[in-house]
Design a protein that fits this description.
Layout lengths: L22 H13 L4 E4 L9 H4 L6 E6 L2 E11 L4 H20 L2 E13 L1
Parallel strand pairs: 3-4
Antiparallel strand pairs: 1-3, 2-3
């Protein structure tokens, strides 16, 4: 640290830097929100994420995230409960994921796409 970097407390406002949130963090937030939504009984991994799921963790399985120009597009691959109104539950799922990701990360969500991969008891 050179002398120009050192400042006396209170003599200069702290510098405000940039905050970057990894796509994996957004995927985990979205996955947790999805798995806690009524009617979702599981996530199905995306065909694109074969080996990557080993290090991504349980909450990001079945979630694809693309961040472009500061806005996230989230794709969920879900297994739904048999006998529920799929249209109503998927609309609720989209809203819950959008709300939780924006609230917890501050990243604007452009779209939440839901792919219902299976239904089961």
């Amino acid at each position: 640290m050179n002398s120009s970097d050192a400042t006396v407390a209170g003599t200069r406002a702290p510098a405000v830097g940039e905050v970057a949130i990894a796509d994996l963090v957004i995927a985990k937030l979205a996955g947790y929100a999805a798995q806690t939504t009524y009617g979702v009984v599981g996530m199905r991994r995306s065909p694109l994420n074969g080996l990557a799921r080993l290090w991504r963790g349980p909450y990001s399985e079945g979630v694809d995230v693309d961040v472009h120009d500061g806005e996230a597009t989230i794709v969920l691959h879900v297994v739904m409960e048999r006998g529920i109104n799929l249209a109503q539950v998927t609309a609720n799922l989209q809203e819950q994921v959008r709300y939780q990701v924006e609230k917890l990360s501050g990243v604007k969500v452009r779209a939440v796409d839901v792919h219902v991969e299976d239904v089961r008891e």
